[in-house]
Every structure is written in C-alpha cells, then in structure tokens.
Design brief:
By secondary structure, the protein is of the alpha/beta class. The protein has two domains: about 5-195, no CATH class; about 220-495, Rossmann fold, CATH 3.40.50.150. The protein is about 40% helix and about 15% strand. Strands 9-8-7-10-11-13-12 form a seven-stranded mixed β-sheet, with helices on both faces. Helix 15 packs across helix 17 (about 415-420). The longest helix has 20 residues, at about 460-480. It starts with a helix and ends in a 5-residue tail after the last helix.
Length: about 525
C-alpha cells in the first residue's frame, strides 16, 4: 500500500532496456574513466535512470572488488563528489528539489530553468546527514534501501512531509543523456573511493522487520498481529481518537475533528446493521473495544468481540468495566477459525480486520461468518482494497509486509464481493469511503508528528518513522485511488427479502427529504 518518494527511488534501477556498459577496469584518471564510459555506452540515445542505475551498480562493484591500487581522495572532497553525482542524477527532473548535505551545503536539484516545482518545493527540504545516505540511495542492494536510510535517520525530510512524498510522480519521468550518465558514473566512483574508509553504517533494528508470513496459519496470524498491534497501547493513544478507533473515520464535513468523525463512523456501522435492543452482535477484530461498547451503550445490544492482540484485549476489558457494561459486553482472545459452531449471532461486524486474513483464506473466512450468522442476519465487512487483482510482490507490498503488516494482503472490491456471493451471502449495500480514509490518515499523521517527543517514551525513533512514512504514503495512495476502502453490507439468505428499509434514509438521520426536494432560490 506504499508507493512513496522514499521507496520510489528504486524505480530508478529496476528493469528497463539497459545500454551495454561493461565493468570498469582499474583506472586512475578522470579522463580515462570518462573515455571508457563513453566507449562502452550507446551515446546516441538518452537513457532512463532505470538503465543507468543497473549499470552504475556493476561498475561500483567492480571498483570495490578490484585489487589494483586506487587513488584515495581527501575527505573534504566527498561533499563535492556527492553534489556532482546528485546534480547529474536529477538534472532531467523538470522541477526543483531542495536538498541539504551533511556539511550544510544547500542544493537546488533539477531543471529550474524549465519549470519550478510549483510552490511545494518551498515547503520541504531533503536532508542527507552522511555520505552513506547518498551511497545507499544509489548503490544499495536492498530495494527498500532508502526507507532504511530514513528509518536510521541518515536521511530526513524537513517541512511538509506529504509534499516531499509527492515527488514520486516527478522522479518517474527523469531521463538522462549520455553525458550525464557517464559524468554521474565518474562522480559515483569518486564518492566511493573517497569515502571507502568511512565507519560501517548502522542497520535498522531487526525488531522493525516482521516475520515472513507464508500460509496465514493461526500461529503466523497471531504473531503478525502482535508485531503490529502490541507495540504499545500508550503509543496508539497519542494519535488515535479518544475511543481508539484504528480504522477509517466518517467525516460529515471536511473540517470535522477526528473524535467527531470516529463517533460518526461507529454510529454509521450500527445503523447499517439495523441494531436493535437485545440483538446479539459479534465484532471480529474488535481492537480496543470501541464498536462493541458503542453498540451496547447506544443500541442496547449484547456484544462480543474477538482479537488476537493481548494488549488490545487488556485495555478493552478495562474500558468495558469502566463503562459498567460487563453484563452486556465481552471480549476474548480468539482466532475467527476457532469460533464455536453452536453460537449464532443476529449481526456480525468486521472493521479493518479482513486485510489480515490472506487471500487464499477469504473463502474460509466468509464461510465461517456465514455459518455463525442467523438466517436473515446482517454482516458488515469494512476493509481496504487494491486497484489491482491479487497481492503481487511490488515495492509497496514488500514495504507493508516487512515493516507494517506481515500478514497483510489486498484484492479488488469485485473479487471480495465475488467470494462473499460464492458462500451464499446476498450483497445488500456497498459504500466507498476512500476520501474519508485519506482524511483520517492525515489526522493521524498530524497527531503523530505533534506527539513526536512523547512517542519516544514508548517506541524507538525508527519505529516512529515507520509509522509516519507508512501512514503518510497511504494517505496519498487513498487520494490517488491506488487503494480504497469499502463497507459491504450482506445478509444470510432466509427464503425471504432481507429486512432492510427501501431507502437509505435511516443511514442519514440529519438529512430530510423535504430539504432535498425544496425549491432552490434562483
């Protein structure tokens, strides 16, 4: 779900029709280096940065592995070589990008003569804190190397984080002439040789990497949930709303605050489920208990929630007790596959949970929900979707599975509904909340940033940066439509029409048909 600036540098070296560049022999003069590169490249045509990055890596590997003597350049020249390299790499950018090196030197990269990066370029500055940050961006083997550089604070973004992430669309369009290609290769070799004696870089803590999930077994899902949700209840409380709802809010107006929007979402779900006093309700993936508490308090249901997070369970029980709802609301540590067959519910909700199921387990999951739902009962599934079928390995999916949701997988809304229908659900209503999630994420990022110092009492700086990057990049992807979020209301067929109103008026109690049909002034 992430496809942002820090990851998109990898597009500069992945795939493409590369020109022929053989490994550089040991040479000691810049003139020899330039002559060699020009002889070995197709100078008649420009190349994308994708082409260049594949070949520059080969050349650097060869230079690093060579046993021949090399000319060591004095350390003060390192910044000069980095400047030359970055200038050539980004000369084809039609916009300008401000960048500050570790020595305080400020660069304006790109082709400012053609067009400026609108006003956004004045809102942020890229900061490279060490030469290793430049090396990692250009030569690293890990496709997510620049994210790692950001996580360990070798690179930072000052100012508008979202504007900086928006660079990804401009980076894709960069093309390089043969002169910049060869010049960048020379500058890259100089940087490597000059900084060869630099101390080894620190690596991002292994705890930032979730365990690989292959089968979406009960054990894998439990460990993946613990990796993401058991970070710290106090950490989540810093940037979530008061009810700690960790899913898309529902904004009746763009200027609604987060607490109001999350309460509106909880009520929106309850109205869709047509909750009535005495109904039995199951919430799969209940989080910290916000929905089951809201449903019991305001709609008089008897609610049960399940989660795989021990920390969520503990806090949910505390909140239930504080609300005096122990007789009507219960929560348990339980995998959906272990729900007892003999228990049946009038209504079932699943909000922001089915993304963890695994695509191959979706038929099992929906069949289980269908099994425990009473005939004529309603089921609301609220979850994130993708604009591409299946969960193929991309930079976005690799980032999410490595750092955020080890078990996360998405599919299109059409495929999700198809699976639901195959287990005999009737689809009664589908609503897209994509703009709402973009707003929600921007609220979360703003609150996370404003509580930076407090957050470091509960998590490391690296973990804080993972959450900041993940949520900001997802906000942009919701805004562009690369990912979406839908509420699908379905019912278990009972040989009769579902007991639902003929219109959606019950979902919008503050809107009256009289006001809609009233004559408008001319």
């Amino acid at each position: 779900m992430i496809n942002a600036f820090c990851v998109d540098f990898n597009a500069l070296r992945a795939g493409g029709d590369a020109p022929v560049v053989t490994l550089l022999p040991p040479v000691t003069s810049t003139v020899q280096q330039v002559r060699y590169v020009r002889l070995q490249t197709d100078g008649a045509r420009p190349t994308t940065q994708t082409d260049f990055m594949q070949n520059i890596t080969k050349a650097v590997d060869a230079a690093g592995a060579s046993s021949q003597p090399v000319v060591r350049l004095p350390a003060p020249h390192i910044a000069e070589h980095a400047t030359e390299l970055l200038t050539r790499l980004f000369r084809g950018l039609e916009n300008t990008v401000p960048l500050r090196l570790w020595n305080g030197k400020l660069l304006k990269l790109g082709n400012a003569g053609k067009r400026a990066l609108s006003s956004e370029s004045d809102h942020f500055t890229l900061v490279f804190r060490s030469p290793s940050a430049v090396r990692e961006m250009v030569f690293g083997r890990d496709p997510l190397r620049l994210a790692e550089v950001y996580f360990r604070d070798d690179m930072d973004i000052e100012g508008d984080f979202f504007a900086a992430l928006g660079l990804k669309d401009h980076l894709r369009a960069i093309r390089m002439s043969w002169r910049d290609r060869s010049g960048a290769l020379v500058a890259a070799l100089r940087l490597i040789l000059a900084d060869r004696n630099a101390p080894p870089k620190t690596t991002v803590r292994a705890s930032l990497h979730g365990a690989s999930v292959k089968e979406h077994s009960k054990t894998e899902n439990r460990d993946a949930i613990a990796f993401h949700y058991d970070v710290s209840n106090d950490f989540y409380a810093l940037w979530l709303d008061d009810a700690m709802v960790y899913s898309c809010a529902y904004f009746q107006r763009p200027d609604d605050d987060l607490d109001r929007a999350q309460q509106a979402k909880l009520d929106h779900v309850c109205r869709k489920l047509m909750l009535n006093p005495g109904d039995t309700m199951l919430d799969i993936g209940c989080g910290w208990g916000a929905l089951v508490i809201h449903a019991a308090l305001h709609y008089g249901v008897r609610a049960h929630g399940i989660t795989l997070s021990q920390q969520q369970l503990s806090l949910a029980r505390e909140r239930i007790a504080k609300a005096g709802l122990q007789e009507r609301v219960t929560v348990a540590l339980c995998d959906y596959r272990d729900l007892p067959k003999h228990l049946h519910y009038d209504k079932v909700s699943s909000v922001g949970m089915f993304e963890h199921i695994g695509l191959k387990n979706l038929p099992l999951y929906f069949a289980k929900v269908h099994q425990i739902l009473k005939p004529g009962g309603l089921f609301l599934n609220h979850g994130i979707t993708h604009d591409v079928e299946g969960w193929k390995k991309t930079l976005s999916s690799e980032f999410i599975n490595r750092y955020v949701f080890p078990d996360g997988q998405l599919d299109t809304i059409g495929n999700i509904q198809r699976v639901m229908e195959r287990v005999h659900f009737e689809i009664n209503d589908v609503e897209s909340l994509r703009p709402h999630y973009a707003l929600t994420l921007r609220h979360w990022v703003a609150r996370l940033e404003s509580h930076h110092e407090q957050a470091l009492h509960y998590v490391s700086e690296s973990t804080w940066r993972v959450w900041r990057l993940y949520m900001a990049a997802c906000a942009l992807e919701f805004e562009t439509g690369e990912i979406g979020v839908y509420q699908v209301l379905a019912s278990k067929r009972a040989g009769r029409a579902a007991e639902l109103p003929l219109t959606r008026d019950h979902l919008y109690p503050n809107i009256r048909m009289e006001s809609i049909l009233a004559p408008k002034p001319h």
